Amino acid sequence: MSEAKNKNLFIRVSGKEKNIIAQNVKKCGLSVSEYLRQRALGYMPRAVLPEISFSF
Asked: Is 11 left (phi over 0), alpha (psi -120 to 50) or beta?
C-alpha cells in the first residue's frame, strides 16, 4: 500500500521559473505536483510525444 500524500509544500518562484515549470509539465503530461515530486526525488520525467507521431 502506498503512503498517503497529504502533506503540503509551498515554494516561491519567479514568473520566469513558473513559466519554465509549466512548459515542462505540459510536455510531460503530468501535474505540477507530480512533476516537481519526480524531479525532487531524482527522476527526469520524459516528454510525451504528440498523437500525430503515432499515425505514421
From this structure: beta
